[in-house]
């Protein structure tokens, strides 16, 4: 069975040649620069809605960075503007640093676990159905829980950068 398409639209969701792009600087307990791809998507599962911008590199994967909204209500694609990185009232942010492709010992920094403070901003400079552009600056920490149930800060990083995210390619 063969399929032929007469469409000349090569720039929408599903364009394998455009995976978006991201670049960032990480300083603090980890000091590095990252660049890679960026995409955005939304989903609903068991009554929980999420909308996210996700960035990562590959071959090898050394990092991932996600900005996520979560709600019991439907979430619309954010318009241009500046958003607080505050997991209670805004975007949560999760950065994963993967050293030497060792996913088992990856370090995770976020404003989700043990942290209820504002942790910077996400600025969306343009937002359309096919592309979102913007920049970010955040300070987030890696936490663990000690034997008494208290949060222990294991390290802090500042991450700043910019992105051009395309709509995630559906599977």
Account of the protein in words:
This protein is mostly beta strands and 171 residues long. The protein has one domain. Helix content is 0%, strand content 55%. It is built from no helices and 10 strands. Strands 1, 2, 3, 4, 5, 6, 7, 8, 9 and 10 form a 10-stranded mixed β-sheet that branches. A hairpin with a 5-residue loop joins strand 9 and strand 10. The N terminus is likely disordered.
Entry summary:
0% of the residues lie in helices and 55% in strands.
SSE layout and pairing:
Blueprint: E1 21-28, E2 32-45, E3 48-56, E4 63-71, E5 81-84, E6 92-97, E7 107-110, E8 120-127, E9 131-145, E10 151-167
Parallel strand pairs: 2-10
Antiparallel strand pairs: 1-2, 1-10, 2-3, 3-4, 4-6, 5-8, 6-7, 8-9, 9-10
Give me the number of helical elements. 0
Task: Summarize the main sheet.
Answer: 10 strands, mixed
Tell me the fraction of residues in β-strands, as a range. over 45%
| Radius of gyration over C-alpha positions, nearest whole angstrom | 17 Å
**Total number of domains:** 1
Order of helices and strands: EEEEEEEEEE
Category by helix and strand content: mainly beta
**What is the CA–CA distance across the termini?**
20 Å
Would you identify the regions where 5 or more consecutive residues have pLDDT less than 50?
A: 1-13
Would you count the extended β strands for me?
10
Shape: globular
Q: Give the helix level as a range of percent.
A: under 10%
Q: How would you state the average pLDDT, rounded?
A: 87
């Amino acid at each position: 069975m063969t399929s032929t398409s007469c469409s000349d639209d090569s720039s929408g969701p599903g364009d394998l040649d455009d995976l978006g792009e991201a670049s960032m600087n990480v300083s603090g307990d980890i000091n590095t620069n990252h660049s890679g791809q960026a995409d955005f998507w939304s989903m609903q599962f068991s009554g929980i809605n999420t909308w996210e911008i996700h960035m990562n590199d590959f071959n090898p994967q050394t990092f991932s960075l996600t900005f996520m909204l979560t709600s019991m209500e439907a979430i619309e694609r954010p318009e241009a503007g500046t958003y607080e990185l505050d997991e209670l009232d805004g975007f949560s942010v999760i950065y994963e640093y993967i050293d030497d492709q060792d996913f088992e010992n990856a370090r995770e920094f976020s404003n989700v676990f043990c942290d209820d403070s504002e942790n910077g901003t996400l600025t969306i400079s343009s937002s359309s159905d096919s592309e979102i552009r913007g920049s970010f600056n955040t300070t987030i920490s890696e936490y663990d829980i000690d034997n008494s149930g208290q949060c222990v800060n294991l390290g802090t990083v500042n991450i700043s950068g910019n992105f051009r995210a395309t709509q995630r390619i559906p599977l």
